[in-house]
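Objective 1b: paired records.
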Amino acid sequence: MSHYSIKNFEEYFQVYRKSVREPENFWAEIAEEHFLWRKKWDKVLTWDFKKPEIKWFEGAKLNITENCLDRHLLNRGNKTAIIFEPNNPNEEAQHITYRELHKRVCKMANVLKDQGIKKGDRVCVYLPMIPELAITLLACARVGAIHNVVFAGFSSKALSTRINDSNCKMVITSDGSFRGDKSIDLKGIVDEALRECDHVEKVLVVKRTNADVAMVENRDIWLQPLMDEASDNFDAEIMDAEDPLFILYTSGSTGMPKGMVHTIGGYMVYTAYTFKNVFQYKEDDIYWCTADIGWITGHSYIVYGPLANGATTVMFEGVPQYPDFSRFWKTIEKHNITQFYTAPTAIRALAKQNLSFVENVDLSSLKVLGSVGEPINEEAWHWYNDIIGKRKNPIVDTWWQTETGGIMISPLPYVTPTKPTYATLPFLGIQPAIVNDEGVELKNNQVEGRLCIKFPWPGMARTIWNNHQRYKETYFSTYENMYFTGDGALRDEVGYYRITGRVDDVVIVSGHNLGTGPLEDAINEHPAVAESAIVGFPHDIKGNALYGYVTLKETGESRVQDNLRKEINQLISERIGPIGKLDKIQFTTALPKTRSGKIMRRILRKIAENDISNLGDTSTLLNPEVVQQIIDERI
C-alpha cells in the first residue's frame, strides 16, 4: 500500500527512506494505486544523466484529462472544479463543476480537431486568467496537442519568438484582458507578433472585454460560435507516458529563452502527489494559487495537480491591489479559502500596506499558507505567519523550478516543523546534494555550496525543445552525473535546506562569497526602503564591489538620501558585516519587473558596469521604460 498522504513526521522519514532506497518501487506504487492508465508501463525508469536521457513509466498509455476529469464524474460530477474570481469584484464569480468542465473541454477538443489540430501539433495559448485558459490546456491534452502557454503580459516580440521556436500551428487568444482598472489589447499584440510568424494557420479569439478588434479573414475566428456548435463528447487520444504534454519557456541568462518540455505520465504523477502532500489537501477544501497559468506554478498547481486530485481550484483574474489592497483577503473570506499559495513579492507589497486592509476580514477558513517563486525573506515570512496565518497556519516555503515540474524542497504542513526562510526538507523521492566549486559533494550538515539533484524524479523536464545540446550543457555538464539547479543552498545543523539565491547572484568581494539575498533582506528592513537589488561591478582592489539599486516608499531630497546611504550601510554592517557594505547606492523610482530575477540582475549589472550597449533581451520586461530611467540616473 503506497503512502499517498503523509500524516506525521515519523511517517515522512519512513517513506522518504524507502523513496530514495527503492525509488522505482516507490513511484510505481504511487502511480499504480492512484492513477488511471490505459496500459501499464513496461519499465518504471530508464535514465542516464550523461546523455542526458530520462524516461518514466516507459510503454504506459494514458490521457491526463481522463485522470483530471473523467474519473471524477461518477463521485464528484457535481463538485466545483474551478472557481473563477473575475478582475472586477462586482462581476459574479463562476463555479464550474467537474461535469460542466468535462463538457466544455470535450467541446473545445472538438473545436481544435475541426480546425485541423492533431496529436503532436503545437498550440500557442495567449490568454488572460479566464476559464477558457484552463479549458484550452485540457482540450489540447485531450487531443494530444502540445500546449505552449505564453504569459499574457509579454510583448509581441517575446510572443513571436516562442511561437516560432516551437513552430505553432494555432494561437488562441482573446479580444483583450482586464488588469486592475486597465484593459490590455491582447489581440493587437497577437496581430503584431504574427507579422513575424509564418506557420500559424488559425487564431481562435475569446470574447472577454468586448473591445473592437481587427479579424483577419481566413485566419481569425471567434471561439464561442464554434463552441456552441461543437459536440460535448470527445474520446481522449491515447498517449504514451513519454509523449510531450507541453512546452513552457523560461528565460536563459543569454539569448533565446529555453522551451522546457514536460511529458505526460511522470509530470501527472509528480504534480498530483506533491499537491496532495505539500498542501495536505482534503476533499472539501477550497485551494487558491494566485499565480498566472502563464508560469509553471499555474500549470502544475492551478490546473493539473489540483484537478488530478479532484480538488476545487480558484482562478483569479485580478491583481492584489485592485480595487484596493484588501482584495486577496476579501477573496479568501468570500470563497472560504483553505490553502493560499502566493509569491514573496506579493507578500512584501501587501505587508507595506496599512493593517486596516486585513483587520476587518475573516481569514478563519485558512489552514495552509504557501510561498513560491523565490526564497521568502524573514521579515515577510513573519508578517505572513503572524498577520495572515495568526501563528496557527503553517507556511510551506516551496523551492522548485520550471525545469523540475513540481515542488522539490518544502515543509509538509502539520508534518514538518517550519523555520523562517528555510524550504526545510526534500520532497519524497528527491535526492539533493550540496557540492563545492569543484563538484565534490559536501555530505555533512552545516555546509553551503551549490544545489544539485543526484537522481531523476518523474516531474523533471526531459529536454529543451529543438535543442537537447543546450539542455545537456545547462543542467548536466557543470557537475558530473548530477542535475545542476543553478541555485546555491545551505544545509543547517538538522539537515534543513535554505536556498541562498542563484549562483550567479553571488558576488565575490575580496575573496568572500556574498549572496545578494541576505544583503537585500538587510536593506529591506530599513523603514524607508520599499525594494532593493544588489549586483557586483568590477573593482580594482576588491575584484568586485557592490552596487545597490534601492526604491524608497517616499522619495527624499539629496541630503536625506545621503543620510539613508549611511543608514543602509550601517544596517548591512550589523546584519552581514562590514564586507557587505555597498560602494554605490542608486535610488530609483522602480526596479525592472520580470519573472526571472536572473534577467533583471543581468540588466542591472550591465548598467552598474556602465556597459549599456549590450543589455541583451529586454522583451520579457513588464516595464522596459524603467531601464532607461535607471540608465539616465546612474551614478
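Objective 1b, second protein:
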Amino acid sequence: MSDTRSSFQVPAPRTDGVSTDADEVGATASRGPAPTDPAPAADSGEDAPTARWPVPDYAEPPTGAWDRQRPHTGERPPEPLWPVAEQAANAAREPRHGVHAHSGEHTGPAPGDDDPETFSFDRPTWDEPTSGTALRDVPQPAAPVRGPVAPVPAWEVPPGQQEQSEGTVSDGFSYWERRSIPDAADAPPSWAGQPGAGEHGARPPVRVGEAAWDDATPEPEEAPAPAPVKRPREPYLDNVKFVLIALVATGHSLVPTLATHSARSAYLFIYVFHMPLFVLISGYLSRNFWNSNAKTNKLVDTFLVPYVIVEIGYAVLRLALGHKWSLTIIDPAWLNWYLLALLLWRLSTPVWKRMRYPLPIAVAVYLLAGLSDLPGDFSMDRFFGLMPFFVLGLWLQPRHFDMLNRLWVKIASAVVLVGAAGVAILISKRVPLGPIYFKDSYAELHLSWWMGMGMRTALLIAALTVSVAVLALVPRRTTWFSDLGTRTLYCYLLHGVPVLIAKEMGWLSAPWLHGPLGVMAITSSCFALAIVLCLPETRTVFKWLLEPRLVWLYRRPSA
C-alpha cells in the first residue's frame, strides 16, 4: 500500500491567460467544462471534488517531472511546474487540498491557492521529542513556496504500492523517504518495540552520534583474525642432520687408523658425501634466512661469537696437551672452517637468489676455482669448493624431497649405497684422499687443468648421487633421534674436544682398532658421543657459551 494518499485535483481554468494542459483538455473534451473549485471559507474544512482511480502494480515514479518549467510570462521568474522536495517539505505543515494522511479528513484549499495544477507529496509529520536530547538535523536550503501543494497524483505513486484505504493510517514516510526492502513489505520495522518508538510504528528520534534511520544496519565488527597456527617442525631434516653429524665425528675419529684398508675405505666413503650433503641441507634451510631479523642476528650469535670462542678454546686445549701456542682468528683451526664458510654462503644468498641460472654459474665457479691456489684464510678454499651444494640447496623445494619418498627410489638408493661402498673398498688404496676435502687446487693435486676439472666433475656427480640415496633412505617419520637432530651445532663444536684428547692420548691408535672390528667400534662410539652431545642437558650447560643472546648489540626494529 502507498505511504501517502494519491489524490488528483481536477484543475480549474486559469485566469491569468496562461495556457495549460488542463485548459487544452477541457477545451477538447466533449463532456462539458472541467469542474471548478468553489471558493470555500478558510476554516470550512471541506474538500474540493477529487478524482481517484486504482494505481496499477506496474506504475513507476515519474521521471523528469522536476525539470518541467512553467511558461515564462515576464511578470514573475519561471518556476518549476512540479514542486521540488524542499517546497513540499515546507508546505507539509500547512493545510492541504486533499486528504490528510493521519486523520483521513478532507481539507480545503488554503487562501491564495491560485495554482490547482501544482502537485506535491503529502508528508505527514510526527511529534517532536519532548526530551532535551539533540537530534540529527541536516539543514536544507529553504525554497520559496508559491502556494499550498496538492496531493500526489495517482500515476506518481511508487511501484508496487496501492492506495490506502480510508481508515488506514500512514507511518509517516513517503516512497522517497523509505528504503525499499524486497519481500519484507509486511514485516514490522526494525525499530518497532524500541524505547521512544511512535504509536503507529514511527521511528524514534535519532540521537547525535547514533546511526540515522536511513543508514544501513551497521555491520558487525569482524572477529580478529586467529593467530597463525605454527607449523610443526618436520622431523625429516632433523633425522638427516643427526645421521650426518654422527658421521662427522666418525670421520674425525678414523684418522689415526687410516693406515688400514677397512678404515681408509670407510673414511673415503663417508667423506665423499657427508659434508656436501650437510652443506646442501644448510643451503635449503637458508632460503628464507634474510626474511627474519632473528635469523639475521644468528649470523653473529651462532657463527661469529662461537667461532671466536671455539678458536680460543682449541688453542688452549692444544697448549694443555703439550703443543705450541697458536691462535690465528682469520685461519680457522680444524673443524672451525665450517662456521666461517657457512657465514659467507649465507651472506651471498641474496646474490644467488637474484640470478636466473644460479646453479650452472656455481658449478662453473667451482671448476674454475681449482685453477687458483686459494688460501685457507676465512675458509675461502672450501667456500668455493663446496659452493655448488649450497646453491643447489637454495634452489630445492619441498616437492623435490617428496619425489624421493617412493618405493622404487628407495630400492634404487639402497643399491647405490651398496655400490658406492663397494667402489670405495676397491679404490681406497689407489686414490689420494686430497680431492674429497674439496679445497685443494689442481696444482696441489698434481693434476693438469683438464684432468683436474674432470676429477672435480666426477666427484661432484658421485657426491650428489650418494647424497640423494641417503636422503631417500633416511626415515621421514618422528624417530627417537629426531629431537637430537635439532641440536647438531653443539655436537659439531664440542665433539672435537674428546676426539682430540683421544688422539693425543693414543686411545684411537690401539692395535685392535686397526681392522673392520675397530671401524665398527669407532663408529658405534661416535654415534654414542653424538647422542650425548645432542641432548638437551648439553645445550643447557653450554648455551651461554655457544648461543649467547646479544640483545644489547642490535637495534630494535622500527615499527
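The chain has a mean pLDDT of 75. The CA atoms of residues 59 and 155 lie 7 Å apart.
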